[in-house]
Amino acid sequence: MLNPSALLYRLIAAFAIVFVLSCASTGLAQSGRRARKSDPVPVATPEPEPSPTPSAAREKLKPRFTFLVGVDRRDAFANIPLYAYDGVLRNVVDRLDDSPAVQVNGSQSEMSRGDAVQKAKAEKEGYVILLQLEIDAMSSNSQNSRTPDIVIEYSVLAPMTAKQVTYGRTYTQAQRSRGGILNPGTSGIYGDRYLNQAAQEAADKILAYFRSHGPATPPPKRP
């Protein structure tokens, strides 16, 4: 029969062995596990501000005046080359388009006085500009048939009524008196710097009138 102290010693030894084996198995189990990666924290990105739509931009830059520009080239006795009419029309339209307050709805290379009146009456807001050219008979330079001095006559008709709101003339002779050099790469009236300047002056006078007077008041509607 075992001694009580010997029995106690064996129990303590057995308990120690079981404890050591239990700790070892727990360590092996934990070492076989993979640590779970934490999910990345989402980073808030600022939302881009919406850009203005083209329609909104057009609304802010809405022009105050609209024009339809035409030139009368039906005077067969004017003795002016046809390409001179094109140069004047182009320069007037380009000059008007340079103003942010103006929109040119179109141009016509052939427009009589009667055509201009009809188009103005059909317009609700747009003005009709009629350009007419003639030889400057008072200019001594007009004796030169290649580059005669030209008079540019402009008339502006109001919408709906076709009433003439402004009228005027510009002269290539006046531009010539101010000095300047012709473009040597061009010839004839079409490349004449003075004619182009006279056309631009006509557009400037039209713009000056509308800046000071504003749009014409439309007639009252009939009951």
Question: Would you mind describing this structure in some detail?
Answer:
The protein is an alpha/beta fold. It contains six helices and five strands. It has a five-stranded mixed β-sheet with strand order 2-1-3-4-5, sandwiched between helices. It is rod-shaped and about 155 Å long. 25% of the residues are buried.
Q: In the CATH classification, which architecture of the domain at 58-213 applies? A: 3-Layer(aba) Sandwich
Which CATH class of the domain at 58-213 applies here?
Answer: Alpha Beta
Number of strands: 5
**Largest sheet, spatial ordering of strands:** 2-1-3-4-5
The end-to-end distance, rounded to whole angstroms, is 136 Å
The name CATH uses for the topology of the domain at 58-213 is Rossmann fold
Determine Rg (CA atoms, Å): 45 Å
Number of DSSP helical runs: 6
**What is the overall pLDDT average?**
77
- Write down the oligomeric state: single chain
Could you give a short account of the major beta sheet?
Answer: 5 strands, mixed
* General shape: rod-shaped
User: Can you give the helix content as a percent range?
Assistant: 25-40%
Low-confidence stretches: 56-60, 180-190
% residues in beta strands = 15-25%
What is the H/E string?
Answer: HHEHEHEEEHH
Summing up helix and strand content along with how strands pair, one would put the structural category as: alpha/beta
